[in-house]
Design brief:
elongated; single chain; mainly alpha
Amino acid sequence: MKQFLKATCLLALVSGMAQIYLPWWIVIVSALIVSFIFTLAPAQAFFSGFTAIFVLWLTIALFRDFNNAHILSSRMAQLFHLPHYSLYLIVSAMAGGLMAACTALSMCLIKRIFYNN
């Protein structure tokens, strides 16, 4: 459990700092690096990647959304036929979380193949 929390916090920190200057897909590279550093079970790796990026992207989206009075998220929710703008924020955070989760799981399984003790 301690490794899970360390991996989750490090992934959120590294991805958050990297996304200031780099594009959104740097999350994949960050998840690869963090899941290579920490030895987690496949389920822990998946949920670590998902939790870190879901919380990070939801937090960033909420801060940016409050600053512009929900204009962009409301329009995007209308575009995707969602009933409320908050659903758009959750869906976009889930997309990022799933992307990082699959990446972390993939690296965990690749590590398991090559470094099987």
